[in-house]
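Assess this today:

___
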Amino acid sequence: MSKIKKAALATAVAMSALTSLVLTAPAANADTRGCNGSGGGYCIWVQGSGNHVNRVVVGGTSLSGILSFTGHYRIFGPDFSRNTEEKEWKWYERPYVDRNQDYPSGSKFCMEQWSSNGRGGWDLLSLPCVYTPV
């Protein structure tokens, strides 16, 4: 078989495999995000589709300007509230709460980012919120 025919066959096989992957891949979930805080870089992501919420995720982005903070997150919504552990959080760490349920349109999901102020108290660094539908 000539080099041209081999190359054409290899390309056809690769395209067939890629098409198969695309056609059989599960539908991607939607998500909505709200950010604020230092440089707008701390966010809450509600993952799901429509009014169905799969997971609520919080954390920083590369825009945060803060590489880490010592404190905790409070993640909350219509029927839950969770405080994470108190520790040094890196901007890329993503604590989350699984929900896997439907919520009415306009349901509000928020996160509070609390930083230790070194005097025995806490300072609120950010409070972004998002609403369903996702």
Q: What stands out?
A: The beta strands are 30-36, 42-49, 52-60, 68-77, 80-83, 87-90, 96-102, 108-116, 122-126, 129-131. The helical segments are 3-24.
